[in-house]
Amino acid sequence: MENESALKNIIESSIEQIREIVDADTVVGKQIVTPSGTVIIPISKVAMGFASGGIDLPRKDSLAKNFGGGGGTGVSVTPIGFLTVYPDGHVEMLPMSRENITPLEQVADLLDHTPELINRLKTVFQRRQDLDEEEA
User: Fold this and answer.
1) Are 65 and 75 in the same domain?
2) Most exposed: 40, 62, 95, 107, by fewest CB within 10 Å?
């Protein structure tokens, strides 16, 4: 019974350490509000591994047993992107890495951003036209 308590203490200690490291703010970070009103929320992926064990070994000189045990935990936190909420209500996920993007996802991403790109180009050409008219 005494040895079960030792193993239980090992497991509880490991779990408590995990709780201190990983909480909801680790996966969905604290929001950042820009002066323009855009809200940026960091998003991360958390992976965890946990192992624990023990063994009872009989002693030669009594009925008591020797207990040996241990435990270990590994936690990995990987940032994956930012959830961006614009003042107009538009929500967009901005990924940190585009390494494993498929061609179909590239086309979908391009189509999703096409109106924004066209507006930027219009603005650039309009400014250039205004400058040319001022010089004339």
Assistant:
1) yes
2) 62
Q: What is the mean pLDDT, run by run of 10 residues, along the chain of 136 residues?
A: 66 76 76 88 83 75 72 80 87 75 70 70 77 78
Does the pTM of the predicted model rise above 0.85? no
Q: Are 38 and 87 in contact (CB under 8 A)?
A: yes
**Same domain, yes or no: 71 and 11:** yes
Q: Report the alpha-carbon distance of residue 95 to residue 38 in Å, rounded.
A: 17
Among 65, 44, 62, 45, smallest CA distance to 54 is for 65
134 and 74, same domain (yes or no) = no
Measured CA to CA in angstroms, residue 70 lies from 29, 43, 67, 93, 99 at distances of 32, 33, 10, 41, 39
